[in-house]
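Comment thread on ticket #2218

A.B. wrote:
> Attaching the input chain for the structure job we discussed in standup.
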Amino acid sequence: MKEMDLFAGEVHNGDEDLDTLPPLSSHASETEMLDYMVLVLSRFMSCDAAFKGGYMLNQLLQGYSRMTHDVDFSIAIKGDYETVKMVLQKIALKFTEQGLISSFKIKEDIAEKMSGGIDMYAEDGHKVLGVYVGLHNISYGVKHYDLVFTSIDGFTVERMLADKLIAITTRKRFRRTKDLYDFYAITNFFDVDMQKLSKYIEIRSGAEWDNIPFNDDIIVQYKRAWDKLELINSKTGNKIEKPGFDIVLGRYYALALAIKAGNISGFWRHEINDII
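C.D. wrote:
> Ran it. Output below, let me know if you need it in another format.
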């Protein structure tokens, strides 16, 4: 097998097996380790998968995304998780041999409401990196992305927004305040097909529409949680200066309340911050 520079984007020869992973520096950064995991997963998984979450937002938003320490993707068939676990174990063993992590734990099972994956730990026991594997329908809201070093399938902007919009209507909002930032960041840089967004919300289900707009008590609690949220830029490592809570909540309302009211024609245009 030809030696591969992870970041040169060379195409593999097609004769690899799981025992011959690409080379990786023992001085790899966390970002390089995340990229390496995606490279290996995309190359060696024999099942359909769709990447999503903070890692995908890093690829889409580049310098405006928040730092993440995880890779997140979904598979559609429960039995495929056995193959995924084999690949995750090979990656973790590679990281351990390189001295990049000290230990790891693979989740043995996966279910519709229970993610699988792996947690990787440093010598002092704190979690360094992870992979979350969900069991979801990936027959909709998925597109092909060409990254610098590999090609993958991932959630579309509308599907990522649908998941976040639903979560924000529920009590999850208080422990997942980052979803509100992600919602704002995505709609700041991408146009959104309102009809697709509404359709994906309906398919996913679980939106608690009666909760929005939030009452005054919820607003106070939510703002307090927002003020405590600290975000690090994925590219520079510097602290992200968050927009004001009223601004991000207003952005959320602009799309969520339109869909709640059944106004799903047109597109959210990020350049003018409006639906036309």
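A.B. wrote:
> Thanks. Noting for the ticket: The helical segments are 30-44, 53-61, 81-97, 157-169, 178-189, 194-204, 216-228, 245-260.
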